[in-house]
Hints:
By secondary structure, the protein is an alpha/beta fold.
Amino acid sequence: MGRTIPCDVAVVGGGLAGSLVALALAARHPTLDVRIVEEADTLGGNHVWSFFGSDVAAEDRWLLAPLVVHAWRGYDIAFPAHARTLDETYYSLTSARLDAVVRERLPAHALMTGRRVLACSATAVVLGDGDRVEARGVIDARGPGDLSRLDLGWQKFVGRTLSLAEPHDVERPVVMDATVPQIDGYRFVYCLPFSPTRMFVEDTYYSDTPDLDVPSIRDRISAYATTHGWHGDTDDGHEETGVLPVAIGGDFDAYWRSSGTGVAKVGMRAGLFHPTTGYSLPDAVRTAAMIATRRDLSGPALHATTHDHAKALWRGRGFYRMLDAMLFKAAEPQERYRVLERFYRLDAGLIGRFYAGRSTMTDKARVLIGKPPVPIARAVRALAGGR
Length: 387
């Protein structure tokens, strides 16, 4: 016979979104019995997450501050006809740091790692070993639902940390180097100087398909490093891969229902990601901070809170999905870089608000004004839903 484990709130999934919810609840409700149920033995997977300072509101920075392991002032971008340094703070955190902070801030019994979940409802979690968690409220943070319910492009990548024989002399992140050959859609390389002799290099593609040819991309990363005079090996075996959705359209309600009805959701499972970048960190922070302000943490109340929050953001982000339609359906794959090259000539504040998902009406007008770097007829068809 399995055990019944009672608690106040059970968070199912110990990735970034779920872990942030647990940290926020523990901080704002210190007497609350919060559990994280995670199939892996550690939290957060194997990731490097990065964000701009402007992505996170000042009142929410307390939640991320203990997790930051790298910080820089300024970042660079480079395109065939345009290069620029932007004066913006940039931060990175890692899965290892996330795991360590959660273990430090929550009691040992709160981390139910290595536990497979069979099913969950608004108030219960059924585990593969026969145990059952019964909670006032359950929050599902296990990753995407059925993405086929959405019209998507893809941002996909392979990232490797290189340990170099000599210092690289790179002072700040290179968020986009699009001077590389354009392969499989819009391609750019992303570099983070972790130390004078450690460099994280990520080869990224805005592609029509989610297929990821990891061996070929590894070779391209090695070639890129060689071109820059960075000689060395992968450091401590760190390599990560990712395929992020870029939302063009779709049925939000059908997507929400695809991973269960009546259960609160956060992160990718709730559709909480930037439509153009696929990044979920800023939304994960806002959602966790919002949940922690709630007094009613029952299953129905948590479901209403997270569903209404996610649906409101989906409705409010139609502008970004419109731009994605133009990028994927109007621009030729090898010419997509021109859209981003033009974007990065705009005001730095506009760029920051865009990545934070907080573009103003003036920002939106400025992005659309002028001759678009895509054929007009194809742009019109893309916006009308055709190719």
